[in-house]
Specification:
About 70% of the residues lie in helices and about 10% in strands. With about 475 residues, it is of the alpha+beta class.
Length: about 475
């Protein structure tokens, strides 16, 4: 085949576009630089003219100062600034318009007269006859300086007008350049669009024929592709290759359909299994987080009433705040993930409420590694365990007891221990509590989540059977242990 490849044609097109855009960009840069140079020259000359005025003002200042102080440095500064002004005048010669050049020559003459008059006054001043001879020359110098100031101001105004005219010319040239660039860019875009349409038709027309035959093949109608020469090497090769593939596809199509059907069924079944599993876990959690028992609220409010009678109002306020915080936390966190430090904070409020109710009969101890405070934990996990220890281990004892909570790190696990010195439980009771078939009871828990519920939640979320364990002896107390990977 003698047809050019698609890559070659694209490279030629891109190269042509790059050359056009580069040329256009270079032209734009040249015009911009030219405008900047002219504008910079205009600003520079204005600054030079302003510098002439400033230098002459400083020269007159030091001229006056010298005849007051007689300091040689003042006379040197006077000459320095007048010379600087003359240098600036000379730097502007030959670069201004005709009218400005005439005014500039007048300024030069005035400065020369100023310098001559100033030197004459200086010579007479230093000759010793200070009271009469130098003063007329001094006054003449000041008068010439005033003329120079007027000439410079007139020169500035005239040159500003001239610059304004030049600036308008520059803006006009810039506008014409912009119009040229926009026009060229417009023609380039039109040409590119026309080329793209023609080029795309060269590609898409034979490809549409290939697509048409591909659709027929997909329906089981195997026909040889009849595509005219596209003048693009790759498309012609593609058409030829397509013809060679038809025979092989016809033999393999049935096997591919069967394999695809089997894989689709497996994928659908897998997705169904995952969906069922997720729904099961979600249902388990929602079932375990379903109720709030009002029994605790009634008992606590009764303690609040008794405290209000016996104590001042601030203690009652603290007690009510603790109750509100616990109830708010239980309502908001039952279906959310919390952390150990938040759970411990709720336990402290619960402990304060129970210590208010039962005074010295109940004692709570909390020890926590602060580094483990942010370890994630299901909401309302620790409070039901502490409350279980209180209800089943301590509350029924006349002498009361102590409940301890310890949080520490052991190897790669966060260990949480809840201990009480209460009545304890039998091995049979421990097995019943840990059994997944054990019946869940609320037993007047604050959140409606009993010990069995907490165990199920931990096992479901961490997928570990040994995440929770119990150690207990009758008459000695009970220890509940949670081990969370960190």
């Amino acid at each position: 085949m003698n047809n050019k490849s698609l890559k070659f044609k694209l490279l030629v097109f891109i190269a042509f576009i790059v050359i056009l855009m580069t040329s256009l960009n270079l032209y734009s840069i040249y015009k911009t630089k030219s405008f900047e140079a002219k504008y910079s020259d205009m600003i520079g000359r204005l600054m030079t003219i302003d510098g002439i005025n400033q230098d002459m003002n400083l020269s007159v200042l030091y001229f006056d100062k010298y005849f007051t102080t007689s300091e040689p440095s003042d006379w040197q500064d006077c000459n320095k600034y007048s010379k600087s002004a003359m240098d600036k005048v000379q730097s502007l010669q030959g670069v201004l318009d005709k009218d400005s050049s005439v005014t500039l020559m007048d300024i030069k003459g005035v400065i020369e007269s100023y310098q001559a008059s100033a030197n004459k006054a200086f010579q007479r001043y230093v000759s010793g006859n200070k009271s009469s001879d130098f003063y007329p020359d001094f006054e003449e110098t000041k008068t010439i300086a005033g003329f120079c100031d007027q000439y410079v101001k007139v020169f500035q105004q005239n040159y500003l007008k001239y610059n304004n005219q030049q600036y308008q010319v520059l803006m006009s040239e810039t506008g014409r350049s912009s119009n040229v660039i926009i026009t060229l860019l417009f023609f380039i875009i039109i040409w590119c669009m026309a080329f793209a349409i023609v080029f795309s038709d060269t590609i898409t027309i034979p490809l549409k024929k290939l697509v048409l035959y591909s659709q027929k093949v997909s329906k089981g109608k195997f026909e040889t592709v009849k595509v005219d020469s596209s003048k693009i090497y790759e498309i012609d090769v593609l058409a030829e290759g397509f013809n060679k593939m038809i025979t092989a596809i016809e033999k393999l199509i049935e096997k591919m359909k069967e394999k695809a059907n089997v894989e689709k069924q497996l994928k659908d079944q897998e997705m169904k299994n995952l969906l069922v599993e997720n729904m099961l876990k979600e249902t388990q959690l929602k079932v375990l987080q379903s109720q709030i028992n009002p029994h605790f609220l009634f008992n606590t409010l009764n303690a609040v009433v008794q405290t209000a009678v016996l104590e001042d109002a601030w203690e009652t306020e603290r007690l009510i705040d603790s109750v509100a915080d616990i109830l708010r936390y239980s309502l908001t966190m039952l279906e959310s993930q919390s952390c150990i430090e938040d759970e411990v904070a709720v336990i402290k409020k619960y402990a304060y409420i129970q210590e208010t109710r039962f005074k010295d009969r109940i004692r709570f101890n909390v020890e926590m590694d602060e580094e483990l405070g942010k370890v994630s934990l299901p909401g309302m996990t620790l409070q039901p365990l502490v409350e279980n220890a209180f209800i089943h281990g301590i509350e029924g004892r006349e002498e009361g007891g102590t409940i301890s909570l310890k949080v520490f790190k052991e190897e790669d696990q966060c260990v949480i221990k809840i201990e009480d010195d209460g009545v304890g439980m039998t091995e049979e009771k421990i097995r019943e509590v840990l059994s997944s078939e054990a019946r869940t009871k609320n037993d007047h828990h604050t959140s409606g989540i009993g010990l069995g519920n907490v165990i199920k939640r931990l096992r479901v979320l961490y997928n570990l059977d040994d995440v929770f364990s119990i150690e207990s002896k009758i008459g000695e107390g009970t220890r509940m242990i949670i081990r969370i990977p960190v």
